[in-house]
Amino acid sequence: SEEYFIIEVNARLSRSSALASKATGYPLAYVAAKLSLGTPLPDIKNSVTGVTTACFEPSLDYCVVKIPRWDLAKFIRVSKNIGSSMK
């Protein structure tokens, strides 16, 4: 069936969305904009591949990891030795 149900709507894109798009090759912002204009998901061409539609499931042969970075140098009297939690 080509029937879809929206279970949640988040009207903004974040830096994490940009990372997810880059990691998966799936153009989240482009697809979200088209959907908000009323274009059905099966009618949206994937702007990356130019062949598939936005309904395709990306197949990945790699793993992407986002690692937090805390710039402790900007804080006075803070130990640069961190453990399993932020200071």
TrEMBL record:
BP GO terms, sorted: 'de novo' pyrimidine nucleobase biosynthetic process; citrulline biosynthetic process; glutamine metabolic process; UTP biosynthetic process
GO molecular function: aspartate carbamoyltransferase activity; ATP binding; carbamoyl-phosphate synthase (glutamine-hydrolyzing) activity; dihydroorotase activity
Xref: InterPro entries: CPAse_ATP-bd
Keyword Thylakoid (UniProt): no
PROSITE patterns found in the cross-reference section: CPSASE_2
Keyword Nucleotide-binding among record annotations: yes
Any Pfam family: CPSase_L_D2
Protein name per its UniProtKB record: Putative CAD trifunctional protein
Ranges for domain Carbamoyl phosphate synthase ATP-binding: 6-13
Keyword tags: ATP-binding, Ligase, Nucleotide-binding
GO CC entries: cytosol
